[in-house]
Amino acid sequence: MRRLKELILQALRSMPTKFVLRTYGILIKDSQVLLADECLNGFRFTKFPGGGVELGEGIIDALKREMMEEGQLLVKDMQHFYTTDFFQVSAFRPEDQIISVYYLIDADVPWSEYESDQSVPGSEHTVKLYFKSLHELLDSDLTFPIDKVVLKLLKGFKQ
Question: Which of 48, 109, 115, 128 is least enclosed, having the fewest CB within 10 Å?
Answer without folding.
Answer: 115
